[in-house]
From TrEMBL:
Pfam family, one: F-box
UniProt KW keywords: Kelch repeat, Repeat
Xref: Gene3D superfamilies: Kelch-type beta propeller
UniProt xrefs under InterPro entries: F-box-like_dom_sf (IPR036047), F-box_dom (IPR001810), Kelch-typ_b-propeller (IPR015915), Kelch_1 (IPR006652)
Cited SMART domains: FBOX, Kelch
Full protein name: F-box domain-containing protein
Signal peptide interval: none
Organism for this UniProt entry: Protea cynaroides
Matches recorded under PANTHER family: OS02G0202900 PROTEIN (PTHR46344), OS07G0153400 PROTEIN (PTHR46344:SF4)
The keyword Glycoprotein belongs to this UniProt entry's keyword annotation: no
Superkingdom as given in the UniProt entry: Eukaryota
F-box domain ranges (all copies): 40-80
Amino acid sequence: MIRFVTFCDEFAEAGSKMMIKEEKKPEEKTQNSEPLIPGLPDEIAEHCLLHLPYPNQVLVRSVSSSWNRAITDPSFFLSKKTLFLSLPYIFVFAFHRSTAKLQWQALDPRSGRWFVLPPMPIMNPVCPASFACASVPRQGSLFVLGGMRSDTEASQPTLVTYRAGTNRWSVACPMQYPRSFFAAGSIGGKIFAAGGSGTVVSETVSTVECYDPAKDTWMTVAKMRNGLSRYDAAVVGEKMYVTEGWTWPFSYSPRGGVYNAEKDTWEEMSVGMREGWTGISVVLGDRLFVITEHGSCRMKVYDHEMDTWHYLGGGEFPCETLKKPFAVCGVEGKIYVVSSGLDVCVGRVFERREEKEEEKLWVEWEVMRAPMVFNDFVPSTSQVLYA
């Protein structure tokens, strides 16, 4: 609190240099007559609140009705984005090893602090691995789709959404088709759900549908050429890449497809891409990486021009100290690998040129240990949100 008051004082001193907002209407002044912070103009106080880090913005809503009104206003989160105050957080969907209890946690990668999210409005019992998750990072929106009831093995069409600005879950329009063990991804602010198991879990479906968060509606798009389930997927630009993925010890060659959202078409995945996709994927910018599921878990990057994969240089992945399964996401030049027990391995990816060699991608790893209270949690997926 002392740091916050000091911060407010600094803003007050700089108040004369700041642009003053348009004069509010008389009825707005009456409604908001209670000052946000006594002794400070509301314009300065609003900027103080905007600098509160996630999830403190939501926690301080109980301070006063004026704070609650200001923070819950839709323009509050937009202002944070406009002023570039939103920062990336790692949101991890995990389940308890023995009870299968579902839980979302958010990690502040700068401080290493974890925050537990409210429980999702989903009816138990469910199979944690059967859900698909996607996010629109810059909008601070998280989407959890489908899933399967573990008692009846029935796939579900449900969709629940989370907003970082309010720290709340809500039930959205369900999918047109029940799905479990399927792929989902975000392209252009819309969510795509592809394939998976349908009403009968043993049967795969080839239907694909698109969700518009602004309209809360679903529409059917081009079908997959083959129905796939239990696979990995990644979005690079306007394309979603879907693969069955290799299963160690690589006893069969996987199938794969590529969806072009701009053209609304599917095509076969190239041979080099699908046969080299030997682990869990992660995207940084326009580059597709894979952390291999065997050996030393080395990381490699896909070369579109050569249709091949290249291993990264640098330090070895600390596979001996981290337990599988892994959930991976990437943002701002770093890759976050969440392991069982929610320990996080952070990989910094950079370019380096050695003597008489071309530039090559390198990665250096560092482990962030999670609190002991997370020891029995297993990650299912992880997503990046700006909050």
